[in-house]
Amino acid sequence: MPPVAYRARVVVPVTTPPIDDGVVVVDGDRIVAVGSAAELSGRANREHSIDGALLPGLVNARTRIEHTDAAGLTWSGGHDRWLAAVAQRTRDWDEQRVGRSAQRGVHALLRAGVTCAGDVVGAGPAVPAAVRAGLVGDSWVEVADVDERGHDALIAALERTLGLPAPGRRVGIALPGPHRVGTGVLQALADLAARRGRPIHLPAAVTRGEVAAIAEGTGPTAAAAVRHGLEAEWLEGGTGLPPLRYLDACGVLRPGTSIAHAMQADPGELDLLAERGVSVVVAVRAAARTRLGGAPLHALASAGLPVALGTDDPAASGDVDALAEARAFASAARVSGFETWPLPGGPRPLAEAALRLVTADGARAMGWGDHSGALAVGRRADLVGVELDTDAEGATQDVVDGGAGRQVLTVVAGVRRARRRTADEPWPAHDPREEDGTPS
């Protein structure tokens, strides 16, 4: 195919300044030029125009596309009630049902402009669904409610699973929390991930119940583990450690590990995460809806931790729109007294920081920075077009404030995977491009 030019009111490369009347030229699956329309005139035979901003494909650092069909879930109460509601909704889903929900989740990601995602996988169909769509990132296979009795069978099964092909995606290990497996199993999972060079992802230090369970072996979370038949070592009087220090003692905290939420972590524990090269995924909207409380933004900022933003389970957040998450993060940081947010390149205004946390800096935090998060020559051609009235001076603020839900084009590795004529019209009920892709 000949080169194709994508032209927009503003091109926002993220790692370089926005460009008025900008163009990204794509040849095959690669970006071959980024600049102004005047500079790049004649570089391509075809041109697609976006009435708004053109950005790198977005990064969603934590979702669960298998639960897409539970996105309209309602419940009364906090996190435990939410967990019960999710279990009730999905209890009778067989593998085919999960597969259909996962496929719809892939469509939702593409329509939201997400081309790179960290996905928690329960039943399995989400991995091939993401691969077929060309989504990059991680697929984390979830392990839950296993103690020493299931240790050998679990590790053997995971060895096989981690060896399966998943082009473009790293397959790693997920846990619902440190309280859902025995200590010996947790240590074995950490060893397996290190030996195979695979990522580990889990929420930790999320609730007071989890903290009491791990430290003392008491409280409602420990009682729930007993009811579910878990014979975990930490139930015998606790470990004497808060969850993050317990994970460190088990060998989990290392580069390649990411922790979600961490509301109950103290500053010293967050400093420990930074020392170990661990990143933190913040999910503002899901945490608020499930009444987990706000992220420890001041402690995260003080620790200098690599941070990424994720929408979390669609059953909690209601969608997979990373721009909605960016807007929520910027708002939460502003309410918490921030005017800037510390990033590796220095403090950035909140809107710019929020956008970077769902593009370049979020990708870097999760280990995806070599292929995602920026529009630059030689990069994979992952693009999202957002329809809005903007210019180079205000594009970053405008995209964060008003871009959610206004995505009109998503290109994955040079292939148009999602497209609609205008953001003011609904997406079509079914678009074959979202499964097989249409070359640019």
From TrEMBL:
Residues 421-440 have a biased composition (Basic and acidic residues). Residues 418-440 are annotated as: Disordered. It holds the Pfam family Amidohydro_1. Keywords: Hydrolase, Metal-binding, Zinc. It comes from Egibacter rhizosphaerae. PANTHER family: AMIDOHYDROLASE-RELATED DOMAIN-CONTAINING PROTEIN, AMINOHYDROLASE SSNA-RELATED. This is Amidohydrolase-related domain-containing protein. Residues 54-412 form the Amidohydrolase-related domain. InterPro entries: A/AMP_deam_AS (IPR006650), Amidohydro-rel (IPR006680), Metal-dep_hydrolase_composite (IPR011059), Metal_Hydrolase (IPR032466), MTA/SAH_deaminase (IPR050287). The keyword Zinc applies. Its cofactor is Zn(2+). GO terms for biological process: purine ribonucleoside monophosphate biosynthetic process. It comes from the Bacteria. One of its GO terms (molecular function) is deaminase activity. Belongs to the metallo-dependent hydrolases superfamily. Adenosine and AMP deaminases family. SUPFAM superfamilies: Composite domain of metallo-dependent hydrolases, Metallo-dependent hydrolases.
